[in-house]
Amino acid sequence: MWSAVISELKGELYRFERGQAIVLIHDGELILRSTIADDPELKKLQEDARILKHMSETRMYPFAMPSQMSFRIESEGKVIGEVSLKTIRWFNRKAEISIFIVPEYQGKGYGKRALKKIMELAFGTFNLYRLEAGSYGIQ
């Protein structure tokens, strides 16, 4: 179909391969080549942890980005509460954080420890910049 179509415009080269438009942008030495999301050579590079840690969250989390993540808080084999990241905005790098602890486990540091761990995940692993929380009544 368009396989023989090649045109050059302002240092950019356009061509069609297997029905897909390929854009080559170059400056004589450096080449930027359009690609597909599943480019096998890029996928291999992205498996390197040294590279992955500097990439966007969409590369770190290969599935559909969740808007919410909830975690059970457990101690001594019992579920004692929940801590969650809600309304996660990956590209704005923010989320809401919520927590509850059942009354008999409150005041024993479980909430503080759970919040510390979820904050490490949010800021350290997910690279969020902001967490928002609200309080209802006396906690």
* C-alpha geometry: elongated
What is the CATH level 1 assignment of the largest domain?
Answer: Alpha Beta
* Number of domains as seen in the coordinates: 2
User: What's the total count of β strands?
Assistant: 8
**Poorly predicted regions:** 1-11
CATH homology group of the largest domain? Gcn5-related N-acetyltransferase (GNAT)
Proportion in β-strands: 35-45%
Give the helix proportion (percent range): 10-25%
CATH 2nd-level architecture of the largest domain: 3-Layer(aba) Sandwich
Give me the secondary-structure category. Answer: alpha+beta
CATH topology of the largest domain: Aminopeptidase
Largest sheet: 4 strands, antiparallel
* Number of separate helices: 4
What is the residue-mean pLDDT, rounded to a whole number? 78
Radius of gyration: 23 Å
Tell me the strand order in the biggest sheet: 1-2-3-4
Task: Kindly report how far apart the N and C termini lie.
Answer: 68 Å
Order of helices and strands: EEEEHHHEEEHE
